[in-house]
Amino acid sequence: MAPSRDEITEKVRQALVDALGVDEDEVIPTARIGADLGAESIDYLDIVFRLEKAFNIKIPRGDLFPDNILTSEEFVQNKKLTDRGLAELKARMPFADLSKFAQNPNVDDIADLFTVDMIVRYVEAKLAGPAA
């Protein structure tokens, strides 16, 4: 039986508390992993490791935090995602709410997409398996 959303949220919260050394009350659904919880690039690897362990899942490199989009001239021009870049981001991150970001797709703001709730949605999708 798949865990409930509350169970997933609690395990994600614990993984973030352990990885980032933050208080549990800081790990709210809207908290941004970087800006609010202080994650740095190395922390993302620790977060992925802890999520894999907590949920017994495999998270391929770039699956949860797709970094290679930002280094492609095809996807980024003048520090903004192109239409192709935005389409690629949507395809790779169907669990993220890109509606606000899409209005002004500045690459400097991409980190704000990574919230606690986004990670919960990612894990839910991962546990549900491939779409039918």
- What proportion strand? under 5%
Give the name of the CATH superfamily of the largest domain.
Answer: ACP-like
Helix and strand composition category: mainly alpha
Rg from alpha-carbon coordinates = 15 Å
Number of strands: 2
Number of helix segments? 5
Order of strands side by side in the largest beta sheet? 1-2
What pattern of helices and strands is seen along the backbone? HHEEHHH
* CATH-scheme architecture of the largest domain: Orthogonal Bundle
Quaternary assembly? single chain
Major sheet summary line: 2 strands, antiparallel
Instruction: Give the proportion of residues in helices.
Output: 40-55%
Distance between the termini: 18 Å
Residue-averaged pLDDT: 92
Assign an overall shape.
Answer: globular
| Stretches with pLDDT under 50, minimum 5 residues | none
Q: How many structural domains in the coordinates? A: 2
Q: CATH class of the largest domain, anyone?
A: Mainly Alpha
CATH topology of the largest domain: Non-ribosomal Peptide Synthetase Peptidyl Carrier Protein, Chain A
